[in-house]
Write a structure and sequence with these properties.
Elements: H1 7-12, H2 22-31, E1 33-37, E2 42-44, E3 52-58, E4 60-67, E5 70-78, E6 81-83, E7 96-99, E8 103-109, H3 110-119, H4 124-145, H5 167-184, H6 195-213, H7 218-231, H8 237-240, H9 247-264, H10 267-276, H11 283-297, H12 304-321, H13 329-344, H14 355-362, H15 365-368, H16 373-397
Antiparallel strand pairs: 1-8, 2-7, 3-6, 3-8, 4-5, 4-7
């Protein structure tokens, strides 16, 4: 069964994970495995191989360590709690844990944690772990010598954000975006271009240089480009910015905001995990699950990039869970199913892509009135059916006897 609603609270109570964003938390939740132990059972044994972290949801456990005089009790934990976090970092267990009552817990396997650390492009997880270990060492040293534990010494560390691209290159790019159009502004237009057309192209070229070096955010460069067309008399300002007053623009902007919120909150990733659990835990079942869940999520999130970014990590994780090597045909087929399900159906649904709203605005008024969400789907349905059949055939062909397993 899937983790309960309290899984996020249990994970955030682990010092290692306090500073993670919602997407990383969602990925950790997706890696949890439910475990149950009867009263009197051993969960971990001191000196044994460390295999992961345990999140105690219900029940009570006793933590002991071996001394020359025998086992010594060091803690009694009652859910909600956690134990074994050092098992994510150390090779051996540093204590034994036995159940006092029946226990229900969630296990984060060590190999899934290591995979997340390797794949994460930002150092947030590593910095969070380093901060938690430093805090734990400082606390134990103070307790050992009897010094008071001050709150200032143990307040949550605010992780430094990654540094932006070099400011030097941004300045160079900004100067080039201005200098290149000015250098050619008074030259004779090449070919059959009019002077006005030549100036439009030069301003567009300057914007392209700006988008490449990013001296300003890309949306500001686009706004400046349109403004320059108006200020230089190449196009009326009223016409240049008229698109921002259309219903299509308002709807597209709202849909993009919704997609960003779902992606940053981790809701999109969690929804994908929930839908995948409906299908059989086999190669064919998960391929079908990725295609079907993509069809369900695409109309709700009108940004294909956000959907693909959210589902991309699932390809490797599902392949690993099914026992396939990272570069096997089976893992590639699962990843391809995610790409198809969450990316290729964008144009099939009116709300599957923000640019679809602008496309409707370009149609003649008489044609525009014919289309709503259902009529758009009906018109695009034949193409969608062919894409599903082709994708299933391609993905299933990759799951034959030639697959290489670990």
């Amino acid at each position: 069964m899937p983790p309960s609603d309290s899984a996020e609270d249990l994970i955030r109570n682990v010092p290692f994970f306090r500073n993670l964003d919602r997407v990383d938390i969602a990925r950790l939740i997706g890696a949890l495995e439910e475990v149950r132990f009867p009263s009197g059972a051993g969960i971990t044994l001191e000196g044994a191989d460390a295999d992961g972290l345990y999140l105690l949801e219900d029940g009570e456990v006793a933590v002991t360590i071996q001394t020359p005089d025998g086992a010594r009790s060091v803690a009694q934990l009652k859910g909600p709690a956690h134990f074994g976090e050092l098992g994510l970092l150390l090779a051996r267990r540093t204590a034994s844990v036995h159940t006092v009552t029946d226990v229900r817990a969630w296990k984060l396997p060590r190999h899934r944690f290591e995979q997340l650390v390797r794949e994460r492009p930002r150092p947030a997880l590593g910095l969070s772990i380093a901060a938690a270990l430093a805090e734990s060492m400082d606390r134990r040293q103070r307790e050992f010598i009897g010094a008071p534990v001050t709150e200032a010494a143990h307040r949550r560390m605010v992780l430094a954000r990654p540094k932006p691209p070099s400011q030097r290159w941004r300045r160079i790019g900004g100067l080039a975006a201005l200098a290149v159009p000015l250098a050619f502004w008074w030259l004779h237009p090449p070919g059959a271009l009019t002077r006005e057309g030549w100036h439009v192209v030069l301003i567009l070229l300057g914007a392209a240089i700006g988008w490449l070096f990013e001296p300003l955010p890309d949306f500001m460069i686009a706004m400046l480009m349109a403004a320059l067309w108006g200020l230089t008399g190449l196009a009326p300002l009223s016409a240049t910015f008229s698109g921002f007053a259309t219903p299509s623009w308002v709807v597209a902007l709202g849909s993009l905001a919704l997609a960003a919120a779902m992606t940053l909150s981790g809701l999109l990733f969690r929804t994908a995990l929930l839908l995948l659990r409906i299908f059989a835990p086999t190669h064919r079942g998960q391929v079908l699950g990725l295609l079907a869940s993509g069809l369900l999520i695409t109309p709700l999130v009108p940004l294909s990039v956000a959907r693909i970014i959210a589902v991309a990590p699932l390809g490797l994780e599902l392949g690993q869970a099914l026992g396939y090597s990272p570069r096997s045909r089976a893992t590639a087929a699962i990843s391809f199913a995610g790409l198809v399900g969450y990316g290729y159906f964008s144009s099939i649904f009116l709300t599957g892509l923000a640019s679809n709203f602008f496309l409707i605005e370009l149609l003649p008024v008489a044609e525009r009135a014919r289309f709503d969400w259902l009529t758009w789907l009906a018109a695009a349905a034949p193409t969608g059916v062919l894409m599903i059949l082709a994708a299933r055939s391609r993905c299933y062909c990759s799951s034959g006897p030639k697959l290489r397993r670990k």
